[in-house]
Amino acid sequence: MDLPLVATFHTLARVKADAGVDDDPAHRTVVEHEVIACADLMLASTPEERSQLAELYAADPTRIEIVPPGVDHTVFAPGDRDAARARLGIDARRMLLFAGRIQPLKGADLAVQCLAALDDPGTVLVVVGGPSGREGGAEVRRVRELAAALGVADRVRWFRPQPHDRLAEFYRAADVCLVPSRTESFGLVALEAASCGTPVVAAAVGGLRSLVHDGVTGFLVEGREPAEYAAPVARVLADPELAAGMSRRAVEQSARYSWSTTAARLRRLYGDLAARRPVRCD
After folding, report:
1. Which of 73, 112, 167, 220 sits CB 3.0–4.6 Å from 204 for a disulfide?
2. What is the pLDDT of residues 105-144, one digit of tens each?
3. Residue 111 contacts by C-beta under 8 Å, 6 or more apart in sequence?
4. pTM of the full predicted structure?
5. Are 90 and 122 contacting, i.e. CB atoms less than 8 angstroms apart?
6. Helix or strand or coil: residue 102?
């Protein structure tokens, strides 16, 4: 059929493999190569993902467009932190948040280790998410056992996956949102947290480099040692003026991302694509 094909990817297999996460890369990479060769248009969330498609998969750069996801600012907006905590039933002076799928790629174990490295009994870690993928169940057990071994199990609060709009309450309740992923094609959690005015401490990988402005809206961490995460978290927790400035700037910068802008861009791209001759694949 002479119909245009548009492709977008949720973390490329070769990128995951390079990050040390084996997710059947041989099979997925073959399929990804085939899709990329036939696609009339590929959508990348960030300039880095565009480069990955071109460099790792020999994608034609002229067929790649950068279209970042958006955020619903009517849902993900700043609010009263204490009130949000009260509604969630979280009684703590300080709260860290990890939100995401529980699998090795996302680094929930590093969030627990960060909590332990802070050595602050007044701080709790809220984990929102459930097991995902082949290793998800084992990863949940491993992270829980790690928390117990580090002596912080009583300061980790576990919440099962939440409706999307409900996540805003968790972002607003947190002092810091941790995003210690091994790789991220975009990092929607970081954007949603910023839109709620929560400083983000994230891994300096993938799309997170575009979303978190180091020292401005949060902090980027190059390594994977718990102390490297605990240090910037401690700075935010200890300095209300720093935290307030990061919160304000995070909200301002997150305003650049909206679903209406994303939808308008896609509509224009699809309209242009419909007027062109589709790519032929052997």
Report:
1. 220
2. 999 999 999 999 998 999 999 999 999 888 889 999 999 9
3. 96, 98, 125, 127, 178, 180, 229
4. 0.92
5. no
6. strand
Q: Which of 14, 9, 16 is nearest to 134 (CA)?
A: 16
Average pLDDT over residues 166-190: 97
Instruction: Please check whether residue 166 is in contact with residue 84, taking contact to mean a CB–CB distance below 8 angstroms.
Output: no
Q: Among 110, 133, 131, which residue's Cα sits nearest to residue 22? A: 133
Cβ-based neighbour number of residue 134 at 10 Å: 12
pLDDT mean across residues, the chain: 93
CA distances from 77 to 198, 200, 258, 270 (A): 10, 15, 13, 31
What are residue 161's phi and psi, to 5 degrees?
-55, 140
Contacts of 231 (CB under 8 A, 6+ apart): none
CA distance 36 to 63: 10
DSSP 279: P
Q: Cα-atom radius of gyration of the chain, to the nearest Å? A: 20
173, 90 in Cβ contact below 8 A? yes
Beta-bridge partners for 146: none
